[in-house]
Design a protein that fits this description.
Radius of gyration of chain B: 30 Å
Radius of gyration of chain A: 17 Å
Order of helices and strands of chain B: HHHHEHEEHHEEH
Number of domains of chain A: 1
CATH topology of the largest domain in chain B: Heat Shock Protein 90
Strand order of the largest sheet of chain B: 1-2-3-5-4
Oligomer: heterodimer
Strand content of chain B: 5-15%
Shape of chain B: elongated
Distance between the termini of chain A: 45 Å
Helix content of chain A: over 70%
CATH superfamily of the largest domain in chain B: Histidine kinase-like ATPase, C-terminal domain
Strand content of chain A: under 5%
Order of helices and strands of chain A: HHHHHHHHH
Largest sheet of chain A: none
Structural class of chain B: alpha+beta
Bound molecules: adenosine-5'-triphosphate, magnesium ion
Number of strands of chain B: 5
Number of helices of chain B: 8
Number of helices of chain A: 9
Largest sheet of chain B: 5 strands, mixed
Number of domains of chain B: 2
Largest interface: A-B, 25 and 22 residues
Chain lengths: ~220, ~280
Amino acid sequence: MLERFIAITADFSIIIPFIYLLFKGKIPLTISDKLIYVYIVLTLIRNIASFVTMMLGVYNIYLYNWYNLLSFGIIAALYFQILNNLYFKMLVIAALILLIAIAFIDYRTLLNVRTTEFNRFSFNASGCFTILFILFFLYELIRKLQVKKLTEYPLFWFSSGALLYYSGTIFPYIFIQYTFNNLANRDLYWIIDAVLSIVLSVFLCFSIRHMKHQKTV
Amino acid sequence: MESPYVIIIGTGIMLIMAMFIVLFVMYYQRKQIEQQMRVKDMEAEFQRKLLEVSMASTEAERRRIAQDLHDDIGALLSVTKLTFNALYGQLGSKDQAERLAKQVREALDETISHVRRISRELVPTTLERFGLPAALQEFAAKSISSHTVRITFGYSGDENIRLEPKVELMLYRVAQELINNALKHSGGTNVHVQLSLPPETFGLVVEDNGHGFNLQEAHTRPSPGLGLDSIEGRLRVINGKINYETGPQKGCRAVVELRQLVLYEKAKKRDVEKAQ
Ligand SMILES: Nc1ncnc2c1ncn2[C@@H]1O[C@H](COP(=O)(O)OP(=O)(O)OP(=O)(O)O)[C@@H](O)[C@H]1O
Ligand SMILES: [Mg+2]
């Protein structure tokens, strides 16, 4: 019962940053802010869609597999545009291509709407790459010192939340065949994901709170 | 299989690491920024000291030149004049010679008064003896004679209050430059200098009714003058600030303030007056 409650809370927690964004009204957003915006909207769409399909009793694993690829695309774009390091930019592009290639090894999970399986490779690959990007970004932050107050920097909040989320979910993803793709103990791992989703939403709220027109890295 | 434990422990470790990284980044970044600020402060302080030293040496140099002018050249000229007068007495009364001699004497007189004026201008003795109000008043009065602009001077507060000599000198030079700028560039007809001394807060205002200027533009002009920069530099040394209220066709009002006020000996002026 509690697990279900957490799962539902997690699904809806993304609404809070979304509403916050709407309340914030018209502010001049930086490109990073816009990409965070898109990330939030995409996550919201996934959660609503999966909730609706669950209610209707339609297969929805398909949604998750695609969401994973799309959200990684946004994150890659986010760090691609914020960092001015050529090697890093190439790494991001390589990671994106590699991820798509890896994801299509398990092509049935992407092309078959009625799939019951999570993509076996793309989740942990995207998680690893995201963590890599974030670590690099944080490293650049403390190396260049261009941001005076980290706690007032939207992208720092986003990165911290995402780092917690992706590093917390990476283990369940590594063993995805035994965890999510194994119906018997899937619920246990949903909880980890759900709790971390809530944490991420909270961090997103902080991120939005500090969005205003400002110079970025 | 044991995977549940592996996963839960692994997840825990990963989360702790992530948390640690985030906190570390925040901590380290703050430390670095603080460090950077400290270095910047030190650099600014160093710059200030450097400026102070260079300005002090300029003033010392001026004092030396003034003294040399007054003591050496001035004295020599006076001696020359005396000798010439003696020579003039012996000259007889040839018309031509008499006219030439008169010219030489006039030239000598003029030179002597020039030397006196220059050596007085180099070192503001009025300032040292009687303080800012008197010195500014004198400067304003002197400037009037040579320009078609009306200069007025007013002050409020206790005129016997003296600031640190270094501070007074800097303020005097700042006021000089501001007045000179107003005379030179403003194209107005009135310049007003207002000084407020303690017990009110200190303030020095120089305003004109000319055509004003664009501060940004004056700074970024290809070959800018030295005046505005030297004002900035002097005020940095004595921890003051200047604010220009100006714009095209709005005149110019420059307000000088001090962040902290070091009073020197009050009533020093009175002592000096008594002594004389
Ligand atoms: N009171 C004023 N009214 C109008 N313009 C002014 C006034 N004060 C300064 N300016 C403008 O600002 C410019 C910079 O002044 P600044 O004192 O730095 O240089 P300067 O007077 O031209 O040269 P310097 O002071 O080195 O002899 C001037 O050229 C003038 O255009
Ligand atoms: Mg000038």
